[in-house]
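Severity: low
Component: inverse-folding endpoint
Summary: output formatting inconsistent between runs
Steps to reproduce: submit the following structure tokens with default settings.
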């Protein structure tokens, strides 16, 4: 089993130089700069003096870095396994394909389970640094991606980090990546409503966050957790652009017949949206061609052609673009 130290050694020094102190009490704690974990930290004197207890300077850094990003969208779901990363990949590729002059990027902040490099077809690529910051990895001329997966020496490396280190990594991604001028930045998140979600919502609080797209599957066991995510968005004042119901039905690759794999026993996402007064963006079927294509990192949008899956995806994207314009 890898230790925290072993994992840290696999990440470039630039990425971990601020994250060596696993049990950091935080700048707002009364023990800031005084706890045993603070010993040897380069910021110990600043924290102990109380100078660090003001507003997080990272918020202003993120605001300045993302000033040329027109739409910043979180992809959320309280439930794991609903296909957030797949939906993020499909949405980003579809938006980028709509207009070659439109610049789109994906930021993967799932620190412990980064899958964007794989599903976007750029696994094994390296991140480079310039005088303007980290350069994202380009999938196409107008589509780029950034993930901690690019910073690991092996895809099998485990990230064993507590909250403060995750928080610092997310801040670096938001404030030190040279995105350039973007029309859309899609931020893929892990399931839940904790560390990563609080960090990204805090850092984007002054950066004109456009809103969140929430992904679910039809069955009630998923909707239970998705309702918590909706409550999270409302409590931290994140606008909900709408809900996408993924795996709404199964499409046979031979005869194109649709059937229910996850029965919507309580009415599915459409009924939930009606009950909670939030927009319903549409549904995406469970298509084995899409699943295999994303697993292999292929541009499945181009391969699907004029299929029902493509039509559903296009309808969802059009509603998202319209919601962003409003």
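Observed output (run 2 of 3):
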């Amino acid at each position: 089993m890898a230790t925290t130290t072993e994992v840290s050694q696999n990440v470039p020094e630039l990425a971990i130089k601020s994250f060596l102190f696993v049990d950091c009490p935080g700048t707002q704690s009364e023990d800031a700069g005084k706890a045993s974990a603070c010993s040897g930290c380069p910021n110990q004197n600043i924290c102990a003096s109380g100078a660090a207890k003001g507003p997080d300077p990272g918020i202003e850094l993120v605001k300045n870095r993302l000033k040329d990003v027109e739409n910043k969208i979180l992809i959320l779901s309280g439930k794991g396994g609903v296909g957030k990363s797949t939906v993020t990949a499909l949405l980003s590729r579809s938006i980028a394909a709509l207009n070659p002059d439109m610049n789109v990027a994906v930021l993967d902040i799932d620190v412990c389970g980064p899958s964007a490099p794989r599903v976007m077809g750029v696994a094994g690529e390296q991140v480079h640094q310039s005088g303007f910051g980290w350069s994202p990895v380009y999938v196409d001329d107008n589509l780029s991606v950034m993930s901690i997966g690019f910073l690991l020496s092996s895809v099998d490396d485990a990230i064993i980090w507590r909250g403060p280190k995750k928080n610092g990594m997310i801040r670096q991604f938001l404030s030190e990546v040279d995105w350039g001028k973007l029309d859309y930045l899609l931020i893929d998140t892990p399931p839940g409503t904790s560390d990563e979600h609080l960090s990204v919502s805090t850092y984007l609080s002054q950066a004109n966050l456009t809103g969140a797209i929430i992904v679910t599957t039809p069955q009630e066991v998923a909707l239970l957790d998705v309702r918590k995510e909706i409550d999270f968005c409302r409590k931290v004042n994140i606008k909900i652009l709408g809900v996408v119901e993924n795996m709404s039905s199964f499409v046979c690759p031979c005869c194109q017949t649709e059937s229910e794999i996850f029965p919507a026993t309580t009415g599915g996402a459409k009924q939930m949206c009606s009950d909670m007064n939030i927009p319903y963006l549409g549904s995406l079927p469970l298509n084995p061609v899409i699943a295999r294509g994303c697993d292999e990192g292929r541009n499945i949008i181009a391969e699907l052609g004029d299929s029902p899956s493509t039509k559903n995806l296009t309808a969802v994207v059009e509603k998202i673009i319209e919601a962003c314009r409003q």
